[in-house]
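ok trying this again, last paste got cut off
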Amino acid sequence: MIDIQQIRDNPAGVAAASLRKKAPIDIDAVCGLDSQWRELLKEVQGLEGARNSGSAEVARIKKEKGDASALIAETKRVSDSIKELKERCDELERRRNELMSHIPNAPHGSVPRGEGAQDNVAVSEWGEAPSFDFKPKDHIELGAALGIIDFPRGAKVAGAGFPALRGAGALLERALINFFLDTHTRRHGYTEVFPPFLVNRESLFGVGQLPKFGDQMYHIGEDDLYCIPTAEVPITNLHRDEVIDASRLPISYCAYSACFRREAGSYGKDTKGYLRVHQFNKVELVKFVEPERSYEEHERLRADAEHILRALNLKHRVLLLCDGDLSFSAAKCYDLEAWAAAEGKYLEVSSCSNFEDFQARRANIRYKPKGGGDKPRYLHTLNGSGLATARIIVAILENYQTATGAVSVPEVLRPYMGGMEEITAG
């Protein structure tokens, strides 16, 4: 949620920032409701002053044994008016805030202009693409030949987009998760959390998933709970409605979770095999930081995620997203993309975002500045995938395949796979 004062001070600027994200808003409606609310609030405050004065006068008259019946009746009438006006005031505020909940976060000044993914800017590239003296197989063919990814049986159990891993495939998945967690906790200093995989509406609103993205999530109607699309949701909401002492910042969490996404509206996108699925595993990185250190921590977060790709020796690039491709809640975002040899293209494996105080306002997460003199302020939240496993598996299978049809196991994963050096059929 953006600050209402930003809208009051510069409504045209807020509307223009929303358009940069292809999210037109009725800024006049927001301003109109806010103006009505403020006028009504003044009226309420004026009547409350009159009521307080009247109550004091009633007390004085009674003390002097006088007749205060007329003043009591008038004070009651004022109190009834206050109650009615407060109800109208609350309704205006509710309608204003509902409209505001659809206003996206403004892009940071360093975010490039653009219409979509084609306008994202490559800021760095690392590693070499593998070369083969044979025609490389894609991950679908490799997964079937090695008996490690079972798309048909997964579809039989749950439908398309729910593949089953088995044998060395399941072991590879588990190895990646453990390697990610160990690296981020032992090397990068994150605190591991194992969060709930179901969350309530308040949690989804807090991070900006609701109301905009309700159709993308799996909803359990009987309990009014949602399967999480990412561990960002429960981890960020651990501190909802809290005031954190500045001495504790930055707080850095990492968490494994399964992630569930309906992928509604993904028609036309590359959905084959393991590239776009409804359930996948991911290790998420979440930071709570002071505003002054926000973008410094954002770069550190990106470096932590990128370290994993380098350790796996996967060619990759970092993209700075343009405003037209930026998510609803993010002020700035880097995408990390790993090269997949048989696909012949880069695959997104991480998004590292700075939300500034957008999520903190929605979730009411504040911090108490050092010295204790200032009132609590909204902190900044950041998160990034560190990493998602599905497309990493695609990249490993396709980049590490051999002429014999086997797949070499990246060296850093071998200790997590019982010393296994190759994944072979059978």
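PB: full thing came through this time. The mean pLDDT is 94.
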